[in-house]
C-alpha cells in the first residue's frame, strides 16, 4: 500500500485521517507543521503527500513549492475552503489534486489511488517513443524530453500530456479531462485543469503565452497541436 505523509495542524483531522488510512493498510507518517513535514520527507520517503493548505508558519503553498524544487512527489492538498483563491495558488504551485475538508476516508483513499494509478499505455501499435516537434514522449517509460533534455513533470502534468498526445488535434472539454486524467466522475472543478495546463505549458512551450503544443479553444476546451 502507498506510504502517505500527512501534514495537518488540526489534531482531530490529523488523527482521523491517519486512523482511517491505517485501517486500509497504508503506512502513515504525520506532521503538524510544514517545517516538520519537510524534515520527514527524506527520512520517511512517502509515495504521496497529503498537505493541509492553511498551516501555521510555513503554509501549504510554501511547502508545495519547496517540494517541487527537488521532487515530483504526488501532492493532494487538503482545504476547508474549496472556493478560496488560495486553492488556485496551491494548484499553480504544483499540487496534483485537492480535497475539501471534512472528507470521508473512502473519498481520500479514492483520490490517492487515482493520483497513483499506473498510466496505461494506449494500444493500437503506437510507437514506443512519439515525437511531437521538439518533444519526445515515451509512453512505456513514462518520460518526456524536450530537445533531448528530460522534463520533470508532476503526475497530473504527465497524465494530462499523455492523454492529449494520444489524440492530436482532438478537442477535449475540461470535464472530459477531469474524468480521464483526474478520474473525477462528477461535475468537477475546472481550476484543476486550467492550473495544470498553465504549469505544463511553462515546461514544454518555448513561449507559454503563445502556445504551440497545447492550444485553447475558447468555449470548448484544449487540444494538442497541430504543430
Automatic annotation (TrEMBL):
Record SMART domains: REC, Trans_reg_C
Annotated ranges, domain Response regulatory: 3-116
Molecular function GO terms recorded: DNA binding
Database matches in CDD domains: REC_OmpR, trans_reg_C
Superkingdom of source: Bacteria
Transmembrane segments: none
Keywords: DNA-binding, Phosphoprotein, Transcription, Transcription regulation, Two-component regulatory system
Keyword check for Transcription regulation: yes
Domain OmpR/PhoB-type: 126-226
Modification 4-aspartylphosphate occurs at: 52
UniProt DNA-binding region: 126-226
UniProt-listed PANTHER family: DNA-BINDING DUAL MASTER TRANSCRIPTIONAL REGULATOR RPAA, REGULATOR OF RPOS
Protein name per Swiss-Prot or TrEMBL: DNA-binding response regulator
Amino acid at each position: 500500500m502507498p506510504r502517505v505523509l500527512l501534514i495537518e495542524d488540526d489534531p482531530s483531522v490529523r488523527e482521523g485521517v491517519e486512523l482511517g488510512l491505517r485501517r486500509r493498510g497504508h503506512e502513515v507518517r504525520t506532521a503538524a507543521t510544514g517545517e516538520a513535514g519537510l524534515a520527514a520527507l527524506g527520512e520517511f520517503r512517502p509515495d504521496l503527500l497529503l498537505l493541509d493548505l492553511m498551516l501555521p508558519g510555513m503554509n501549504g503553498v510554501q511547502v508545495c513549492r519547496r517540494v517541487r524544487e527537488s521532487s515530483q512527489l504526488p501532492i493532494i492538498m487538503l482545504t476547508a475552503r474549496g472556493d478560496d483563491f488560495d486553492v488556485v495558488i496551491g494548484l499553480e504551485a504544483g499540487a496534483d489534486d485537492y480535497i475539501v475538508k471534512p472528507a470521508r476516508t473512502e473519498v481520500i483513499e479514492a483520490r490517492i489511488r487515482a493520483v497513483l494509478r499506473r498510466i496505461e499505455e494506449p494500444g493500437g501499435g503506437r510507437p514506443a517513443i512519439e515525437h511531437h516537434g521538439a518533444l519526445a514522449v515515451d509512453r512505456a517509460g513514462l518520460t518526456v524530453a524536450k530537445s533531448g533534455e528530460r522534463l520533470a513533470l508532476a503526475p497530473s502534468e504527465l497524465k494530462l500530456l499523455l492523454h492529449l498526445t494520444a489524440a492530436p488535434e482532438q478537442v477535449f472539454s475540461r470535464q472530459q479531462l477531469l474524468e480521464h486524467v483526474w478520474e473525477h466522475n462528477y461535475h468537477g472543478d475546472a481550476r484543476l485543469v486550467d492550473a495544470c495546463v498553465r504549469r505544463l505549458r511553462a515546461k514544454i512551450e518555448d513561449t507559454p503565452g503563445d502556445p504551440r503544443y497545447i492550444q485553447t479553444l475558447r468555449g470548448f476546451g484544449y487540444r494538442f497541436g497541430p504543430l
